Amino acid sequence: IEASRADLQRAVLHPNPTVSLADSGWKGSQSPIGRAGDLIARIDQPIERGEKRLLRERQGAAALQVAQFDLLHWQRQILTRLAGALIDLDTTRRRLAAAQEIAAALERADTIARRRLGAGDLSEVGAGRVATDAIRARNDVSVARGDIFEALQALRVLLEPRAFEALQAREIDIDSLPGLAAPVAAAATDGMPDSRAADALSRSPELAGARQREEAARAALALATAQRTRDVTVGVQLERPSYSNVAVLGVFASFPLHVFNDFSADIRRASSDLQSARLETERLTVQLATERSRLAQAFANAREREERLRDQALPAAQRNAQTAEYAFQRGAASVLEVLDAQRTLRGIQIEVLAARADRLRAASSVALIDLAPDRSQPAAAPSPEPKP
After folding, report:
1. Tens of pLDDT along 17-72?
2. Cα–Cα dist 84/92, whole Å
3. Alpha carbon of 246 to those of 21, 90, 98, 251: distances in Å?
4. Which CB contacts under 8 angstroms, 24+ apart, belong to 345-350?
5. CA dihedral angle for residue 238, residue 242, residue 244, residue 248, rounded to 10 degrees
6. Degrees, nearest 5: CA angle 153-159-160
7. pTM, entire model
């Protein structure tokens, strides 16, 4: 952005004048020191025509806005990474809680199995199966703790130290974050986004930056065409001959002759760049609309899958596991029934957490698109002497 501001400041400047001083009218055998020669003073000022300065200003202002929109784009990319890291941390913490619950249940089943083994009511093979699953459950707890550490390290590189310490000190309610708790507009039946999404897409930094690149290319084409308008250099010369005390004033004007170069190549190149910028704007428009529709559909699918698993499959699996454990404790259920119920419960819990994570990721991506800031106002020209 600072570089673009410098370019814009340079674009609005007028050409510098040129001052010439000469001493003439002496022969090679004479020394110029101590003699009166022909003194000549001249100043030349180039004058731009064809609104070249205005076109450079338009091009520089568009380039400045491109840099500002690029900054917004990268800020949104970092926010996307931050949201993903927070979702991963929340998911691993919930997976740790689920793994601890399963491990506690299998620890209780292992205690019951050893007691039944000692009473001769259970075979050594059955007790061994329960002990093996209990060990696996404890390993799942250790793996979940390691995943939490990895998720925290991913957040460490995105947050400053004080924010990271605050994050470690308390639990984060992901569902309360802006945009994640609010419902996300799903794609319409024709596959196009709704009016709110269309407005957000029109204000997205990527699309706004593409439009400003197109504007800069349009100004560059006009500037290349304006080169065919000849610039004029006006000069004023003051001459005092050595033989007279009367000064002579002269006025000069010069302009280039476009004999060998009529700037056709520059115009063709600028026209090609403008066409490329237009195609890029069209491509980004379709890409962003398609991406938002895809994310909205992914959000709807993940929410439906999560609700079905959380409200129907998970309670049934929990009741089945509790019933099997209760029956196994009283000798009315086999080892395989208990282990199968616990494995089913563990699988359903993992599926619920995966669906929840997919819903949150889709919701955060759509929310960041819809919350795109409005930066449609033209950038202000910098002051002649900007502060450092």
Report:
1. 999 998 876 655 555 555 567 788 999 999 999 999 999 999 999 999 999 999 98
2. 12
3. 18, 91, 104, 17
4. 345/102, 345/314, 345/317, 345/318, 345/320, 345/321, 346/98, 346/99, 346/102, 346/137, 346/140, 348/309, 348/313, 348/314, 348/317, 349/95, 349/98, 349/102, 349/314, 350/95, 350/98
5. -10
6. 115
7. 0.73
